[in-house]
Amino acid sequence: MKVRGIEMKSIYKYLIINLCEKKVRSFLILLSIGVSAALLFATMGMSNTCKQMYVDQIVKWSGTSDITIEVNKQQGSDTFIKNTDISLDEEKYEYNVGIIKSEGLYNPNVENMQYLDIVGTTLEELALYNNYLLEEGDIEDFSGNKIMISSTFAEKAGLSIGDEIPIKFSQDTITFTVKGIAKQKGLFINESTSVVAVVPRDALEALYGSEGISNQFYLKLKDNSNMDTDITSLKESLTNCTVSRSVNPSDLSQAVNTVVMPFRISSLSVVFMSIYIVYTSFHLMVLERMSAIGTFRSIGLTKKKLKRIFVLESFLWGVVGGILGCLLGYIALNTVIIKYVEKLSEGTLLTVAIQPIQIVISMALAIILTMLSALPPMFKALKKSTKNIILNISEEKVKKRKLQSVVLLIMVLFFIACVVIPHTMGASLACMIITIVCMTIILILMIAIIPYGIQFIAACIMKFGRSDKVLWIAARNISTNKNMKNIIRLLAISASSILIITNISNAISNTIANVYDTYHLYDISMSYRTADESFEEQLGNVEGVESYVSDYEIDSVKLEDQNYYLNTLYGIKDETFFDFMGAEQTDESQNAIEELNTGRNIVITNLLASKLGLSVGDEVKLTIDDSTFDYTITGMLESSFKLGNIGFVSGDYLQKDINLSYYTTTYIKTNSDVDTVKNNIKAEFLEDILFIQTLDELVAINQDLIVSIFRIINAYAMLAVIIGIIGIANNILACYIERRRELAMYRSIGMSKKRMKNLFISEAILCGTLGILVAFIGTTGILNITPFMLSYIFGNVAMEYNVILYAGFAIAGIFIMCLLTILPIAKADKLSIIESIKYE
């Protein structure tokens, strides 16, 4: 193919040679595109992995079923129904499995006692709805006093195949023989809070003296499109049972988003950085090609043809970068899962599944990002006339100083508006979105304002610093050289990215860590099978117990009209509850707490009220166990415990509404060694403790998780910095190449190599100072409004400005700029004056 005498293959050959000659720049472009695609790939993959992990944990009991039926029971007693009582048309479901679920106590000694969730079923039914995988043993005849336990419990208790294990059920003790040790799959998937054991159905039927009974059922529908209708039908026929979906999509989505959200936020800065680096790299590429572009156009290559070539080239860059991004993303995904998600898995088998849509979206992002970043500087180059390209005449218009002042004023007003607007809104989804928009605008303003800041500071130096000729020249060079402005931009973005992410990470980490000091004011928490006033009286006599409080706690309570779930609804006796679970109260909220028992009143958090737009006096409908109750909001208190999604009602009214016989949770303060008191309590209430844990144990469980979260997030920040440093180095080197002729002229009129080095160092210090100054201003503005974004996700977050961190980054930024001057200094030492003057 020819274009007026020039073959297209010659053009493509030139482009390929140009790319090969500029290996560092080409690598940087590919790396930037690849990292952006990799972060999207990894974040999507992590979302899928977390979703599957939570599905596995949620369906621990329900397996592959669609509907779960649980017989309602008073705490402390077992109730069963006949398997034949399930009235749903048999043609509607694939299977209907009923199990007997009970509790047992394994008690070799007080310190190592373990409560077990005992499942009575047949292996055939277990395999039908919730498969298992044996690690040891071979169970052929699963009947009588045999038991299957998990590998985790077997290791903890020192049990092996053939060992006998006595388990106490109420007043009866049955000795089982270990016949199977299962892997952490299905029922055995998560034993962080409870240990599961499977025994033959006939063993529990003999214990409870009846055959063909169950207290939990799992149904798999042939067609789940009418599941809600089927659930309603079952509720009507089974009035003493709770019927629900086995997996609640809303709960699953909320759990996954809570885990993935910090990484989505952190990855934005890296993507933003990559876009800018791709843009500046293509800008430099076009500058280097200007003479060739002028030549091609002078011999007949039209702008239309060149645009097609540029579009094709940027598309191919995007494709190659996307492929690299998918490979890097897979590596990053595995790293994040090992370092972070594994901490959340609690023994769940994690699988890294790569979905086709994941690859397609990552590739699409890479291509779109590249084309949007590459085409503007490429098309801009085509606006120059052929004559001006060949003669290297600049067509840029210098803005009038008056116009520059107006633009600068407008940007300052926009900056102020972006900082002020979130302060006028309460915590809500809209506030979070608007805050993210404001943060993005501030980042854009940081880049846009740099040329004006450079002009102002350079003018001051050139006016008042004429005695220092090197500094004077450095200021003039920075104010007139685009590459130096790009260097300052990259430094500002790099510094602000890591400052923002580091400060946010520290704020969230401190907030989570402070939860234990702020809200957990007790030493031990426990759940007792028949917790009532007589239990509390007996608990008060245990050695080491100083004080205690009991309450009713109901999880996942739906606010019907708001279509929102409370993490926990607390039914409390009186205000003494807050001596054990802290909250910031005003006089109004204290009065509301004291008057809870006067009716169906509820006190909620300010955070929840802000999220849902609720006020004192509003009525809310609480749905608990398929029953809905009207409660009136009588007060609000300040608390971000459980993300602020909590409410407090009268324990008496809650107990009456849902027919509770016993308290669900008891909190204890001690006056001696906590572990000793815990063992004293276990010895006193050996058989009926459902759960007991010290606060130190709770902190230890969550500490590794907190550390792992922010280790990965800070790794994202360091990635942004590394990319920024590479981009700065590339721009410094390109800047030197572009200025070879200018530097040769300095040498030809007498500038020594020493003064040339001083010039480079002065430019580096000025660039570093300006970049860090802009970064500090932008970072401070963003951090000022960040709590309004985080409050919707994490509750109230206090943002602290670490002066030492700021100072450290200021020194580091200027040091890195000075360090990178080694590149042009090394080149300048080998500078040939004659060849450089002839450059271009």
Automatic annotation (TrEMBL):
**What region holds the ABC3 transporter permease C-terminal domain?**
266-385, 716-828
Keyword Nucleotidyltransferase attributed:
no
Gene Ontology BP annotations? lipoprotein localization to outer membrane
A GO-annotated cellular component = plasma membrane protein complex
Q: Which UniProt keywords apply?
A: Cell membrane, Membrane, Transmembrane, Transmembrane helix
Please state where this protein is localized. Cell membrane
* Spans traversing the lipid bilayer: 27-46, 268-288, 309-333, 353-375, 406-426, 432-465, 486-504, 715-737, 758-783, 803-826
- InterPro entries, alphabetized: ABC3_permease_C, Lipoprotein-release_system, MacB_PCD
Transmembrane among keywords: yes
Chief place where the protein resides: membrane
**Membrane association type:** Multi-pass membrane protein
Domain (MacB-like periplasmic core): give its ranges. Answer: 26-229, 498-682
To which protein family does this belong?
Belongs to the ABC-4 integral membrane protein family. LolC/E subfamily.
Instruction: Write the protein's name.
Output: ABC transporter permease
Q: Which organism is it from?
A: Lachnotalea glycerini
